[in-house]
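Quick one: co-fold with 2-acetamido-2-deoxy-beta-D-glucopyranose.
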Amino acid sequence: MFFPKEVCILLYLSPLCWAIYDHYRLPTALLPLHYDLRILTHLNETHQSFEGSVKIELQVREKTQNITLHVKNLRVHEDHISVNENCIEKIEVNEEYDFYILHLCRELKVKNVYQLEMHFEANLNSSELGYYKSNYTDMDTKELHYLAITQFSPTFARQAFPCFDEPSWKSTFNITLGFHKNYSGLSNMPVLGCEDHENLEHYIWCHHAKLLRTSTYLVAYSVHDLQNAATIESGGVTFRNWMQPKFVNQEWFFVQMAPKVVAYFQELFRLSFPLDKIDQFMAPQHRFSAMENWGLITYNEIKFMFKPEDSWEEMGSSNALTLAHEYAHQWFGNMVTMEFWNDLWLKEGPSTYFGYLVLDVLDPTLARGERFIARDLANFFSKDSASSALAISKEVKGPSQILAQFSEYVYQKGSLTIRMLHKMLGDEAFFQGIRSYLGKNSFENVDQQDLWESLQEAAVENQIIPKNFSLSRAMDSWTLQSGYPLVTVIRDYQSRKISLNQTRFYLRADNENTSTCWWVPLSFVRQKLPDFEQTHPQSWLECPDSKKELELTDSANPNEWLILNPQVNTIFRVNYDDENWKLIIDCLNNDPKLGGIHKLNRAQLLDDLAALASVRIRNYTQLFDLLKYLRNEPELLPWQRASAVLKRIEALLEGQEANEFRIYMQQLFSPLYQRFPKLGGISRLPPSLNEVPMLRFVYTESCRYLVDDCNLQARILIRSTHRNGTVAKVSSNFRDVAYCSLLENGGATEFQELLALFQNAENAAQQRIWATALGCTPKFFLFQQFLNLTLQSEEKPISDCYILAVNEALKRKSLASETAKHVLTEAKTLSEKFKTKDLTSVLMTLAGNLRKPEELEELNKRLKDIQQFEEPLKKALELAKTNRQWQMECSSDFIQALRNNI
Ligand SMILES: *[C@@H]1O[C@H](CO)[C@@H](O)[C@H](O)[C@H]1NC(C)=O
Ligand SMILES: *[C@@H]1O[C@H](CO)[C@@H](O)[C@H](O)[C@H]1NC(C)=O
Ligand SMILES: *[C@@H]1O[C@H](CO)[C@@H](O)[C@H](O)[C@H]1NC(C)=O
Ligand SMILES: *[C@@H]1O[C@H](CO)[C@@H](O)[C@H](O)[C@H]1NC(C)=O
Ligand SMILES: *[C@@H]1O[C@H](CO)[C@@H](O)[C@H](O)[C@H]1NC(C)=O
Ligand SMILES: *[C@@H]1O[C@H](CO)[C@@H](O)[C@H](O)[C@H]1NC(C)=O
Ligand SMILES: *[C@@H]1O[C@H](CO)[C@@H](O)[C@H](O)[C@H]1NC(C)=O
Ligand SMILES: *[C@@H]1O[C@H](CO)[C@@H](O)[C@H](O)[C@H]1NC(C)=O
Ligand SMILES: [Zn+2]
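Sure, here it is.
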C-alpha cells in the first residue's frame, strides 16, 4: 500500500506539501515488482570497474508515457534501453534529484506488466558509497588486494544500478555476480550455482537465490578475497565471518555474539529470521560503523578489529551495541520498513532501544544498556533545551537532507520514545503490540501511525488505556515536535490535591512559545511506597489544555515526598513546590538507603534542579543542598550527571571563582576517591569488568581536581609497568586515564613519550586512546605538533584523532583558548576534512567555554562564510548566548552558593 500524497497531507498539513512532494519523490504511476540484476566486476591492479544490466518488471498503476527512476554516476548505454515493444523518444536527466526520465513513444497501459532493461557501467569509486572499492595489504606477501563492496543506504543504490531508490518500492531481486575465479562473491542470499563466463577466460557467473521483497537500500553484494574465520550453524541460520587473512586466527566477540542476538530477537518478537544465512563482513574501509544489509551485514574493520589487550570496556560496549543494533534492524527496517526517510526514527529508534535491551539480557552484570540509556537521557535533556532542536519525524527533501537525518539525535530520541512506550504500557502490552506490528507489516512499509495503532490495540486490550484514548494523538506530540515540557507539580498539603501544568523548557528565556504542549503520562511514587517499577500512567496531562488538578487514590501524607515520572520513563523535567523539594532533599541526605529513589531519578533530580537554577526557577543554594547527598551515593549514573552539570558551569568561571570551584570539586570527590583501591595497584589487582566504568570515572575526576594522591598513583601505574619497555601491561582500561594525568602534570618528556606511543600504535583503537590523552597536556607548543601531524594526515583514522584530542583540550582551561584559536585559523581545512557531526562536537565544546562577547563575535566572523559550519555554528551561537545570559543573571547566585559550601 502506498499513498504518499495522503501521507504527506497527514504529516505536514501544508498546501506546500504537494509542490515539494512532486520535486523529490518518484512518481507513483509505476510499481517495480522484480529486479534481475547482473553485475560483472573487474578487480586487478589496472582495472577496478563494473558493468551491469538490470531488468525491472514494472506494473502500471496509472497510465503514463514516461518512466522516472534514479540513476547517479553511471554510464547508461542509452541505445540499449528497452521497454517491451515500446521505444524511447527522449531521455531527460534531473541532476538535483538523481532522476533519469525515459519518455516513451507509446503509453503504458494500466495493470499491464512491462519489462524495462538497461545496461550500464562505472568505475568502482573510492568514496565508500554505492558500489565501491576497498583494499588491504597482505601481511606476508606485502601485496595489495582489492575488493568491491556496496553501501547503498540511504540513497546510493542508484550509483550502482538504475532503480526506484526509495524505501517504499520494495521488490524481489535475482542477483547474479560475475568475477574472476580468484575472488568470491557474496550477496544477500546464498549462491544457487555458478557457470563459466561466456567469453571472459577465468571468469564465472554466480546466481544468488531470489531475495524476498526488500527496499533497494538493503540490497548488498561484494566481490572479494577475504577469508571466513568461522562458520556457525544456529537455529537454522548459517553465520559466516569474513575478514583479512591476518585476523582469522584470533577470537572475535562478534562471531559468537551474533547467533545469540538473533536467537534472542526471534524469541522476543516471535517472528523467525526469514533468511537462511548471514554473512558478517569486515570491510577494510567503511563509511559508517556498520550496515544492516539483509543477510550481508558489513562492519567497519577499523572500529571492530583490535586485539583484546588493546580493547577497553567502553569500546567493547560500543561495538557490542553496534552489533545488537544491526541485528534488531533485521526486524525493524528490513522486515518492516518506514515509508520514507522522514520516519527514519521508526527503524533507528527501536533498533537502538532493543540493542540496549539485548546487551543487558546477554550480560546483566555489566549494565551496559542502562548506561547507554542514562547517556541518551543526559544528551536529550541538554540538546532539546535549545530552540535549534528538530523533531525526529520531519520532512527530508533530497539525498543530503536524508543523509543528515542519520544523526545521533534521531537514534537517541527515537530510542527514548520507544522506551517511553515500553514503560508506559508495561512488558505484556508493549511486546504484544510490537509483535502484532511486526507480524502485520512484514515485508511492507509503515509510517508511525501503524506503530501507534498496534500499540493502542494491545494497550486497550490489556486495560492500560481506555478505549477512547488516542495513543496516536498522544505520541505524535512527542515525535512531530522537538523539545520537551517542564511539568510543575504543586501539592496542596491540606486537601492533598495536586495541581499540574506544563510549558516548553528552554535554557534561554527569549524563546517563550506558550502554544507548545505534550500529552504527558503521569505516574507518581510516594515515599512510604517507593515503587519505581510502577510506570503505567495514572493520569495524563493533556494538550492543548495544559493544566490539571488531580486527586490521587493513594495520596501522599504531608510529611512524605512525591516523585513524578519513575525511572524517568518519559522525557520531561519536573519542578515541585518548595516543600516537596525539601522533603526529597532531606530524604536523600539523611536516609542511607536514599529513600529507595531509583538511580535514574536521582540523576534526573540533579539535572532538573541544575537546569531550573540556571533559568532562575530554583536557586543554586538548593542545588548545593541536593549535591551534599552524593556522599551517600554509590552509583555511577547520578555521579556522572552531577559532574557533567557542574563542569558545564566550570567552563564559564575564571580566576578566583575558578579556584573556588576546584576546591569544591576536590571536596566533593575526595570521599569518593577514598572508597576505591589505588590506581597504582590496578595492574596487580585488576577490577572486574563491571567495576571499570565507575573506577574510570573516579580516577579521571580525582586526578583532574588533584584529589589526594591520584596523580602520584597515575605515575606509579605507568612507571611500574613501563620500566621494562612493555606498555601493553598498563591495564588497558586505565592507561589513558593515567597518561592524561601524567601529561597534565608533566612536561616535554612525557608528551614525547605518549606521542611516540600514538605514532607506533598498531591499530586505530589504540591510536584513539592515546590521542584523547594527548589532549591533556597543558602546553600548547607541544600539543601543536600533534595537531599539525593529524590535520595533515591523509589517513582518516589519524585525522579523526584530531577531533578527539581537540575535544579533550577544549575541556581543559590550560589549553582551551589556544586550541580554540587553532580551530578557527584552520576552519577551512576542518570543513573540508570532517563531517558535520565532528564539526558540531568541536564547535559546541568550543562555544561552551566562551566567556566574552568579543570571543563570540570572533567565532561568528571566522565561520559564517564557511558553508559546512552553517549548522554547527547556529547551535554553537545559541549555546554561547545561553551561557552569556547565565553569566549575567545567575553567576553571582552560583558563586554565593558555592562559597557557602566550601
Ligand atoms: C585487468 O582486468 C581487465 C578487465 O578485465 C583486463 O582487460 C586486463 O587485462 C587485466 N589486467 C591484468 C594485468 O590482469
Ligand atoms: C511523466 O512526465 C510528466 C511531465 O513531465 C510528469 O508530470 C509525470 O510525473 C511523469 N510520469 C512518470 C511516471 O514519470
Ligand atoms: C587503498 O585504500 C586507501 C583507503 O581508502 C586509499 O587511500 C588508497 O589510495 C588505496 N590504495 C590504492 C592503491 O588504491
Ligand atoms: C529468480 O530466481 C529464482 C531462483 O531463486 C527463479 O526460480 C526465478 O525464475 C528467477 N526469476 C526471474 C524473473 O528470473
Ligand atoms: C504553572 O504553575 C506554576 C505554579 O502554580 C506557576 O507559577 C506557573 O506560572 C504556571 N505555568 C503555566 C504555564 O501556567
Ligand atoms: C532559594 O530557594 C529556597 C526555596 O525557594 C528559599 O527558601 C531560599 O531562600 C532561596 N535562597 C536564596 C539565596 O535565594
Ligand atoms: C619484564 O616483564 C616481564 C613480564 O612481566 C618479566 O618476565 C621480565 O623479567 C621483565 N624484564 C625486566 C628486565 O625487568
Ligand atoms: C604547526 O603548523 C603551524 C602552521 O603551519 C606552524 O606555524 C607551527 O610552527 C607548527 N608547529 C609545530 C610544532 O610543528
Ligand atoms: Zn541503525
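If it helps, Residues 170 and 214 are 5 Å apart (CA to CA).
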